[in-house]
Amino acid sequence: MKPSIYPCLWFDLQASEAAQFYCSIFKDSKILENTPLITRFELNGTLFMGLNGGPKYHVNSAISYFVYCGSEEEIQCMYDALSDGGSILMPLAHYDWSPKYAWVVDRFGVNWQLDVDDIRSNQKVVPCLLFVNEKRNEVKNAILHYTGIFKNSKILMEAPYPLEAGLPEGTLLFAQVKLGEYLLNAMSSTLPHDFDFSPGNSLVVECETQEEIDHFWANLGSNGQYYQCGWLSDQFGVSWQILPTILSKLMTDPVRSRKVIETFQNIQKFDIKALLEA
Q1: Buried b vs exposed e over 32-56: b needs ≥16 C-beta within 10 Å?
Q2: Domains (range + CATH), the chain
Q3: What confidence tens digit (pLDDT) does each residue in 40-61 have?
Q4: At what angle do helices 139-149 and 210-221 cross, to 10 degrees?
Q5: The Cα angle at residue 65 between residues 63 and 69, in degrees rounded to 5
Q6: Within 13 A of 99's CA, how many CA atoms are on the CB side?
Q7: For the residues of 84-136, what is the DSSP string, one character each?
Q8: DSSP string spanning 188-257?
Q9: Contacts 24+ apart (CB under 8 A), 192-197
Q10: Predicted TM-score (pTM) of this structure
Q11: Quick one: which H or E segment has residue 33?
């Protein structure tokens, strides 16, 4: 089977509250799993996970989520709901790249980019990596790196800066890739920013086999850094979680869950055989 990719949002005990808020706004949405540690939910049919990780990390603008609304009525509704209690980075208006677009931060600190255009995909919500400061020229390198790791991947769109921007020729302002069946956007900014990639926003790769876990662990973590419990940061600083698909089932097993947790708490890369034997 192909690995499943989805975003993880880090909260301080607000994962369930946030999921309920989002599901009240987005169409085709539902909560799939709700535990003291995680909440899994779908927004417009796109899978998300909320993690009650505590106060150590926070979501920020380094990763935002494009919502392709498909109509003026829908984008206005999303704009009003997501900005309520939050803040507006770019107001809903016409821009060079879209007849109607906005960038808002919701009440939980999650960043959303709203576009009136539709998208030729069932995936209506697309994570977007923002490369800033000393990383602003890395978009091309990043998309080549990721499409080289995930099978059946391809670059769908590249939008370079104009020559008058004074950047190295070919520096990308925006790009979209398909990692297997999953869409991912990437963009850069020439302005100074006070944020960078962190575990506050991560991307989960769920794997069916140990071979898949070994592949993504080795290749995504190359020239990056490895952490406990399947976490790593890649060479660009983007956080990933490489998890076995069976983990969720084992964690909700009242008989085995305690031993399963004890098994993986002190390891870095997940070992499916060790989990099953716990």
Answers
A1: eeeeeebbbbbbbebbbbbbbbeee
A2: 201-277 (3.10.180.10)
A3: 999 999 999 999 999 999 999 9
A4: 160
A5: 165
A6: 8
A7: TTSEEEEEEEEETTEEEEEEEE-TTS-EEEEESS--SSS--EEEEEEE-GGGT
A8: E-SS--S----TTEEEEEEESSHHHHHHHHHHHHTTSEE-STTEEE-TTS-EEEEEETTHHHHHT-TTTH
A9: 192/132, 192/133, 193/61, 193/132, 193/133, 195/60, 195/61, 195/62, 195/132, 196/62, 196/132, 196/133, 196/135, 196/237, 197/62, 197/63, 197/129, 197/233, 197/236, 197/237, 197/238, 197/239
A10: 0.94
A11: strand 30-34
**101-122: pLDDT as tens digits:** 999 999 999 999 999 999 989 9
Residue 53 CA neighbour count, 13 Å, CB half:
18
Beta-sheet strand order (sheet of 4-11): 30-34, 38-43, 46-52, 4-11, 201-207, 239-244, 231-233, 225-226
